[in-house]
TrEMBL record:
GO BP annotations, alphabetical order: carbohydrate metabolic process
Taxonomic superkingdom: Bacteria
Protein name: Deacetylase
InterPro entries on file: DUF2334, Glyco_hydro/deAcase_b/a-brl
Length: 227
């Protein structure tokens, strides 16, 4: 039985948006849907609510049926650690309150959560259902919060606190090829910050198209919302 191919892009803000848009168009042309990981705040001075061009594009993507995933609250903390990697329930609840309120104000109501760098603490996982989330994604796999089931599928990332050097990209391509050939679900993600490098984008696309050619079914993370 073949698994699924899940591709996502994170770190979407004013400076990265043009490259993200181009990569999305390329993947769409390949028949590979893209999940967009969106945070209301990134770095020290960027706010989605104050970036009308990025907001307009993302709302348009939502209207066209694109999967929009909440990717944390304030990614500025990533310089020290991944935002939701070690939080207990109380602090996770406060950050999720802030994130969901800000996303709702600008027109989004995501039911899938993926923390920055995919690092998800037990405390965060425990409180996500309180905010209407039905799916959570981590480095190890995908959690269905409605029934407590878990699909083990390691995320393969370019950037986002992971590597982007040639040896890393080569390893990622091999891992995607190997996983798809075994019928496993293949998860690939790239940071918008790394899309500026043509070789990185080329290798990321190679990993995605290779997984598809090996039999993985292109999907997005909403697959698990109603499954």
């Amino acid at each position: 039985m073949s698994g699924h191919l899940l591709v996502s892009i994170s770190s979407i803000f004013a400076e990265t948006r043009p490259g993200v848009q181009k990569l999305v168009r390329t993947l769409d042309a390949e028949g590979i849907p893209v999940s967009l990981l969106v945070a209301p705040r990134i770095d020290s001075d960027w706010r989605l609510s104050k970036d009308p061009e990025t907001l307009e594009w993302l709302l348009g993507q939502k209207e066209e049926g694109r999967a929009i995933i909440l990717n944390g609250f304030d990614q500025a903390v990533q310089g020290r650690r991944a935002e939701f990697a070690n939080l207990g329930e109380h602090e996770a609840r406060l950050r999720l309150q802030g994130a969901t309120r800000q996303m709702t104000r600008v027109g989004f109501d995501p039911d899938v959560f993926a923390p920055p760098r995919w690092r998800l603490s037990p405390g965060t996982l425990a409180v996500l259902p309180e905010f209407g989330f039905t799916v959570a994604c981590s480095t190890r796999g995908v959690h269905k919060l409605v029934d407590g089931s878990f699909l083990q599928a390691r995320n393969l990332s370019v950037g986002e606190g992971f590597g982007s050097a040639k040896w890393w990209r080569t390893s990622l391509i091999k891992a995607a090829d190997r996983g798809a050939s075994k019928g496993n679900t293949v998860r690939l993600s790239i940071s918008g910050r790394n899309i500026v490098d043509g070789k990185t984008v080329r290798d990321f696309l190679r990993a995605a198209t290779m997984a598809r050619e090996r039999g993985s079914t292109p999907s997005d993370y909403r697959l698990f919302v109603s499954a």
